[in-house]
Amino acid sequence: MVLFALTIFLSAALLFLLQPMLAKHLLPYFGGGAAVWTACMLFFQIMLLAGYVYAHVICRYLVPIQQRAVHCLLMLLAVMALSLMVQPDIIAFTAAGPLSGIIMFLFVTVGLPYLVLSATGPLLQHWFAGRYIGRSPYRLYALSNIGSLGGLLAYPFLLEPWLTLATQRQLWLAGYGVFTLCCLALTVTQLPKLAQGYRAQAVKLGQGTALHWLLLSAFGVVLLLAVTQQLTQNVPPVPFLWVVPLALYLLSYIIVFNKPGWYQGAIWRYLFGLSLAFALMLFYFGGSFDLWSKLVLYLVILFSGCMLCHGELARLKPQPASLTGFYLVLAAGGALGSAVVNLLAPEVFSHYWEFLLVLALIALLLQVRQPPQPAWHTPLWLLGIGLFAVTAVALQWQFGQHNVYSSRNFYGSLVVRDLQINGQLQRQLIDGTTSHGAQYLDTELARQPQSYYRQGTGAALALQHFIPAAITRSSQQLQQRHIGLVGLGSGALAAYGTPQHSMLFYEINPDVIKVAKEYFSYLADSSAQIEIVPGDARLTLAEQLANGSQQFDILVLDAFSSDSIPQHLLTLEAMQLYWQHLQSDGVLAVHVSNNYLDLTSLLRNQAAQLGMQAIFIATPAAGLNPAAQWVLITSNSRFIKQAAIQQAVRAWPSALQSAVSWTDQRSNLLQVLK
């Protein structure tokens, strides 16, 4: 019995340790956004379904001795695949598009080992039920989820802060070897003790039972991914914020499948009812909440919804002989939910409406096959759902009536909105929940940059007052300025361009390029030579370096997605790449305005390692223009000593934390949370 528990625990831990590790590995190659995690989840759910199909088929149609032969062969093939495989070039997969590229890369690298790990839970529970007649195998399902939870929590708190990605991979491979030995030992020692005719039974279903299981499982996954999307719109999508929601998702399975009495539906229905109100507040007024309040409320919504979905699954589970079929339906629901978020929702919705929609659908589904309730319960519950829907529609009408354009793709959601500001019509670009640029539509005001890019901000000062340190350049060279800009937004910084400027924008999101060209006039009105390079800036800069340095005088880093900046653009290796493209006396301007992160210590340390000086320029809020914070990094003393720059420099907002440093192999978000 101990060997069953150990093997299941190891398989689940390895399964869920692999997920954030691989997703973090892929982040720099696919834009560094939250959708990388949801795309990985789609692959994991598909492979989980494949593993459950495999387990159900061999348990249903093969006798134990045949099951042992097939499974041992599959495990050995998986070990060979891991030991012989050379790590493929991820960049080769980016050409297929972000979603397809991620799934293809994961399938090539870990497809077969992940299939084996996925099949272990239902397979061993079936063998346990045949070996220990009369004992419920469902507690092993709870143990499996405990292993999953342990693997998840180990990553952000133990592995990620202390080990490089290469070391993490070696550790995982060693763990997989131990798991394989345990599983082989179990097949040798335990399978011969099963009756030779012992096979899984077909699931005996009442009317609509399988559909009910499928929907409960699917809605739980949609809620998990929708909450994760909401959280990572404003904070970098890093393993910590992937793991916490997924850990609560797993914890709900642990609770409800460990002991039937641990699920008290009435309590969770009450909390879920409150969660509907929380969801509306967060969806429409989330900017008014601090990070920790927002995190707690989102997790309450997620946990109450998952407890209800998974509690109902535990209440309606079949007899142990049919458990592989039951798990197969659950896995199909998980894959369906993940596909809805990754494939259907971006095509149907221009914003993250699946978050509110799945909450309403869970509430409705709870009225199906529910245990006996007081007569007043159903009308009151339906009234609450109706109020939730009406309020959501009313708020959306209020917020959406000024929208002139909206879109959503792999990289996020965009809204272009026209509002009356001080008697003037202003057009705003909203990325997720954060304004990423504004422009007055009046022709006399249209050329004046607004928001974080207005006169006196760090980027504006760098563009207007750059003076080369080298005095040996000719006067003609002194007049020329080659400027790189990572992140396009509304194109506001183009307003500072002159005929002597060439400005090269790097932008990964094609919808942002469309919006900047069609709905804002900064690019068209600029006197500079403008060029836009689509694609991830870091990958593009690395490719361009093969043909020589761009020799930028100024490089502006403003690659936010909502209020989040991709981590891979701030590592030491990224900084070294930027300076290979900058003149020796150039200036790197980094936008650090952020509600949740303090990036100043990170940039000060990175600058010191590069032998550069960093200064902090903070422009206070003025009217409706928000406060803007920029860090300028340079070795150009002539530039820094100018009166305009010295007058704008401010004291650093927090004490220097010397330990804060990010590399491609190691980074820790917890170090920079405010």
UniProtKB/TrEMBL annotation:
Keywords: Membrane, Polyamine biosynthesis, Transmembrane, Transmembrane helix. The keyword Secreted does not apply. This is Fused MFS/spermidine synthase. The chain crosses the membrane at residues 33-57, 69-86, 92-117, 138-158, 170-189, 210-228, 240-258, 270-289, 295-314, 326-345, 351-368, 380-399. It comes from Rheinheimera maricola. InterPro entries: SAM-dependent_MTases_sf. SUPFAM superfamilies: S-adenosyl-L-methionine-dependent methyltransferases (SSF53335).
